[in-house]
Write a structure and sequence with these properties.
The chain is an alpha/beta fold. It is built from 6 helices and 6 strands. The protein is about 45% helix and about 15% strand.
Length: about 150
């Protein structure tokens, strides 16, 4: 029985590199199986240096890879809609970095594609630096609120 989810990461820019490294060692049940990056040298060297078995210069090839269980879209915002819609067609669960798109119309396209396909979709959204969250964290550290159950 396989215990790890094979991830295909699309986009190895500054943030994509960071996410890739999380999948490589900080997320216990993730296996970074493949990366896709239009800059071939970046894709090839990242894969070689980090033991990632597969790399592509075209994200379509990553989406077609039957061994990839789920995809992380960490590309420029103007590409999110097209990649996300195609990932739904491939039946791949999706994590997409924010923002979803450049317009409400594009966002609705993604929403409709998700609803048609039924694939799991998660939008990246970090709140840890928001004032309310930082205050809650400090209260936890100070022992004011007791043992947290869910934040």
């Amino acid at each position: 029985m396989r215990t790890k989810l094979n991830i295909g990461l699309i986009g190895l820019g500054r943030l994509g590199d960071l996410y890739a490294r999380y999948f490589l060692g900080r997320i216990r049940h993730a296996n970074l199986l493949a990366v896709a990056e239009t800059r071939a040298g970046v894709a090839a060297s990242f894969a070689a240096e980090n033991g990632v078995p597969k790399w592509y210069t075209d994200y379509h090839d990553l989406l077609a890879d039957k061994q990839v269980d789920a995809v992380a879209i960490i590309t420029p915002t103007n590409t999110h809609r097209d990649i996300a819609v195609e990932a739904t067609r491939a039946g791949k669960p999706i994590f997409c970095e924010k923002p979803l798109s450049l317009s409400m119309e594009e966002s609705l396209d993604v929403k409709q594609a998700i609803e048609r396909s039924g694939v799991y979709f998660q939008m990246g959204f970090m709140r840890r630096f928001d004032r309310g969250y930082a205050t809650a964290k400090q209260k936890i550290v100070d022992g004011v609120v007791g043992t947290p159950v869910l934040v």
